[in-house]
Amino acid sequence: MLSVRRSLKKKTLDQESSEYESSSPSPSPPPPNTMSQQQQQQQQQGEASPAPTPRQTREKQLLAMIATLQQQVNTMLLQQQGSRVEVARPQIFSGKIEEVSAFINVARIYIRMKIMEEAATTQVAWVLSYVQRGITEAWKDNLLDELAKGESEVESAEQLFTKIRNDFGETSEEERKIEQL
Fold it and tell me: What is the sign of the dihedral through the CA atoms of 35, 37, 39 and 40?
């Protein structure tokens, strides 16, 4: 009998609580949505992440620029560390046969020690800056014109050295005898 009373009492309590829940006001509404309308629309359309704002896009651009600049500075610092070694620059090349080997050797060493990382066109221009005086002026002007037109075979400092050696370098023994006559 005691168990019957308990079960009746329990049923009564359950009924009362369900009546209370149905008569009580609905729970408080959720806090107002803090998303922008654009974010809400994107969420409704099923997009996973919102589009970056102009500010976020600009920040990404600036970070990329900073990274590029840092890389450039590091490269320059490495180049400056290597430039502590003093290297002789070539003498002005005037086209004399006896100057050819020395000019090429000194220029080659300088390029290896100081400007190896530069573009091939920069190296060629640097070498040509030491080709001056006499017949070499016209030779250099012709070569520069060919380079500008894209008609030159010279694409590297080594190719330029070969051209200098062929055009101004030591000649065969027969040619030297003819020159002496």
Answer: positive
